[in-house]
Amino acid sequence: MRIVVTGGSGKLGRAVVDRLVASGHEVAVVDLAAPHRTDVPATRADLSDYGQAVGALTGVDDRWGTPDAVVHLAALPAPGLRPDAALFHNNVTTTYNVFRAAQLAGIDKVVWASSETVLGLPFETPPDRLPVDEDTGPNPESSYSLCKTLEEEMARQFARWRPGLSIIGLRFSNVMDVEDYARFPSFDADATLRRWNAWAYIDARDGAQAVERALLHDGTGAELFVIANADTVMSRSSAELVAEQFPGVPVTRELGEHETLLSIDRARQVLAYEPEHSWRNHI
């Protein structure tokens, strides 16, 4: 496929570009920052401007024609990077522009980055049950999370307007590169340090795998999947962590020793997603 990756210069975007290129896809990057590799065509564009979003997805001279698919990762990636209203305006507007430009360009496959935050993060109010899954929430607790919640609803409406569209939102956990793993053992000293997302993470390479699986998924409509690694960031068992930090929260099944508390069962079943990496292999 010819695939445009917005935000392809970011932490997750770099891994996505690398995987898609390795799989033989024709990949192009749209970002405000330069790409990390020279063998991929790239164009600098501010996707909060609708005209630039349309221009990027309908073809750019000397770069690419209309793509077969778009992977939309471009956004301010966390709360607090700008004042709340500015972050909200940027992220919601950018996502609307990309969804609308894809519709105008006749692109039938859109994969985009939603977020674990719609599940109720940070879990200052404990979840109703553990592991949490796609049926949890949405429970936005920040302007950033509210953006993602509204973007998920936008995706549903774009799919309703356009039968035949596949628009898949991936609720990514906290993205990690290999160099981030050196600090993981320090988390064991205080379980509250990572309680905010139930000790979950996603290796950027496994996030890229999920993106490719979503691109290859044979389905239509708006779909959502939680994407995390199979384990937690902790050496302590998941059952012990839940008992200590979430007493009284029902646990819906027996947990594996280090099993993720952000359920990836749906992604496994529907997308054939299976994490290939763990911090435990690097520390």
Automatic annotation (TrEMBL):
Gene3D superfamilies: NAD(P)-binding Rossmann-like Domain (3.40.50.720). SUPFAM superfamilies: NAD(P)-binding Rossmann-fold domains (SSF51735). Signal peptide: none annotated. Coiled coil: none annotated. The lineage of its organism: Bacteria, Bacillati, Actinomycetota, Actinomycetes, Geodermatophilales. InterPro entries: Epimerase_deHydtase (IPR001509), Lipid_A_modif_metabolic_enz (IPR050177), NAD(P)-bd_dom_sf (IPR036291). It comes from the Bacteria. This is NAD(P)-dependent oxidoreductase. It comes from Goekera deserti. Residues 3-186 form the NAD-dependent epimerase/dehydratase domain.
